[in-house]
């Protein structure tokens, strides 16, 4: 039998008991005859705590040192997990990202993997050992410094290793039983999706569903590596993320046009009020925002009022980037001549995603009608081939998710979703 890569998230290894439980699971896979490579995240909320610590020391931690600090979280879990496995009589060896051959660019805090040379992992497997790799980290090819891949990056480590090792599957273990039609934390009737395409998973992840790291799905799609998303707290079959052709009819519900509802509470909205309706104004605004390294999402420009010749431009962005974008825009006041800036960080985004939507009329109408019935006001709208998203008040996110979920009959009759762990931090 071939190689299985398993990734365990922070909530699965939150404490010693969790580490021991995970060790048992890994050994069971080894006993079933597989070569096992494990990628592990930092225990519980360790990464957040390390970030808090750095911020107590200095308001702007230097990127190189912050990466050095954060990678310590994964090094703790890899070492204790290797110890736990050894104490049960099996050979296990831990490796940092660098030792495992995860080579990245030099962008601290958001490094991209450019190569994986897992010589030491292959060697360990050849000697019958279980290899444990610290997730979310690598080493820069140019600077030789230690880098991190961005929050949640252990998923990407796992898929990259699975691809480099030609593994049969990459299993991603978390505290829920798979990918659900909505976040079970706010939609109790959410149903587990047995199979889902890479494309739909990408849309769900990009729209805030906290299921998988976005880049891990892109990576898996590029190399066609099947991902099995499942819980480390149960033995249930989870969700298979596979190529679209492999999502067969039987796997999807009768109304398979919509696969799920995603939501995102990490957004903010900036409105530039009273922008003179002239050529080049939008370009100036978005150039400034881009220079502040802001990732903008939805944009709406109102029709200008004939009387004033002015218009409002609104866009959404990650809340964490709000201050920088506002500062950049303030500097433009003279150049653009807008009237004022508005910042609203109590917005949320709700999206319906489904591959079948591109050929089914009326999807958007159903969504908007459901929101209207639930008394949810739509502030902004955007669409892709397989997605419709709306921005609403943050206080209405839950109602919007529940309304959309019901409107597309996504709910199961029984409560299927169990959230086993995690502090949700
Ligand atoms: N420990 C890192 C984080 O919390 C990486 C990961 O969990 O994948 O973001
Ligand atoms: Mg984590």
Distance between the termini: 38 Å
Number of strands: 20
Bound molecules: aspartic acid, magnesium ion
| Mean pLDDT across every amino acid position | 93
Whole-angstrom Rg: 23 Å
Helix content: 25-40%
Q: List the strand order in the largest sheet.
A: 3-6-2-1-9-11-12-10
Largest sheet: 8 strands, mixed
User: What would you call the structural class?
Assistant: alpha/beta
CATH fold type of the domain at 3-247: Carbamate kinase
Architecture of the domain at 3-247 in CATH? Answer: 3-Layer(aba) Sandwich
CATH class type of the domain at 3-247: Alpha Beta
Polypeptide structure, described:
This protein has helices spanning 16-31, 46-57, 63-87, 119-126, 154-164, 198-206, 214-223, 281-291, 322-330, 333-336, 363-373, 397-407, and strands spanning 3-8, 35-40, 92-95, 102-104, 113-116, 130-134, 137-140, 146-148, 169-174, 195-197, 227-231, 239-242, 260-264, 267-276, 299-301, 310-318, 340-344, 347-353, 380-384, 387-393. It has 425 residues and is of the alpha/beta class. The chain has a domain at 3-247: Acetylglutamate kinase-like (Carbamate kinase, 3-Layer(aba) Sandwich). Strands 3-6-2-1-9-11-12-10 form an eight-stranded mixed beta sheet, sandwiched between helices. It has a four-stranded mixed beta sheet with strand order 5-4-7-8. It has a four-stranded antiparallel beta sheet with strand order 13-18-20-19, with helices on both faces. Helix 6 packs antiparallel against helix 7, helix 8 (281-291) packs across helix 9 (322-330) and helix 11 crosses helix 12 (397-407). It is globular and about 80 Å long. It is an enzyme of class 2 (transferase).
């Amino acid at each position: 039998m071939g190689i299985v890569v398993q990734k365990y998230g922070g909530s699965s290894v939150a404490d010693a008991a969790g580490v021991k439980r995970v060790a048992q699971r890994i050994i069971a896979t080894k006993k079933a005859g597989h070569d096992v490579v494990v990628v592990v995240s930092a225990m519980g909320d360790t990464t957040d705590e390390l970030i808090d610590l750095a911020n107590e020391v200095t308001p702007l931690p230097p990127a190189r040192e912050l990466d050095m600090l954060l990678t310590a979280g994964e090094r703790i879990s890899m070492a204790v997990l290797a110890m736990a496995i050894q104490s049960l009589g099996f050979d296990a060896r831990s490796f940092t990202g660098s030792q495992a051959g995860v080579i990245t660019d030099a962008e601290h805090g958001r490094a991209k993997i450019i190569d994986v040379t897992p010589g030491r992992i292959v060697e360990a497997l050849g000697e019958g050992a279980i290899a444990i790799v610290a997730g979310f980290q690598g080493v820069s090819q140019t600077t030789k410094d230690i880098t991190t891949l961005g929050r949640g990056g252990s998923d990407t480590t796992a898929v990259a290793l699975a691809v480099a090792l030609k593994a049969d599957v990459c299993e991603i273990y978390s505290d829920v039983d798979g990918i659900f039609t909505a976040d079970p934390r706010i939609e109790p009737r959410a149903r587990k999706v047995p199979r889902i395409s890479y494309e739909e998973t990408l849309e769900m992840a990009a729209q805030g569903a906290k299921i998988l790291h976005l880049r891990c799905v892109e990576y898996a799609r590029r190399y066609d590596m099947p991902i099995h998303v499942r819980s480390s707290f149960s033995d249930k079959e989870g969700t298979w993320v596979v190529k679209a052709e492999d999502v067969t009819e039987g796997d999807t519900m009768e109304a398979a046009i919509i696969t799920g509802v995603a939501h995102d509470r990490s957004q903010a909205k900036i409105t530039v009020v009273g922008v003179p309706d002239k050529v080049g104004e939008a370009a100036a605004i978005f150039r400034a925002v881009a220079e502040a390294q802001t990732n903008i999402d939805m944009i709406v420009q109102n029709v200008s009022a004939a009387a004033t010749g002015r218009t409002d431009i609104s866009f959404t962005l990650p809340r964490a980037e709000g201050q920088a974008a506002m500062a950049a825009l303030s500097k433009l006041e003279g150049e653009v001549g807008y009237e004022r800036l508005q910042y609203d960080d109590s917005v949320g985004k709700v999206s319906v995603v489904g591959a079948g939507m591109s050929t089914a009329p009326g999807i958007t109408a159903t969504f908007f009608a459901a929101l209207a019935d639930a008394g949810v006001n739509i502030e902004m709208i955007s669409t892709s081939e397989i997605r419709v998203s709306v921005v609403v008040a943050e206080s209405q996110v839950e109602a919007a998710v529940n309304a959309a979920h019901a409107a597309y009959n996504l709910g199961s009759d029984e409560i299927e979703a169990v959230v086993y762990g995690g502090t949700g931090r």
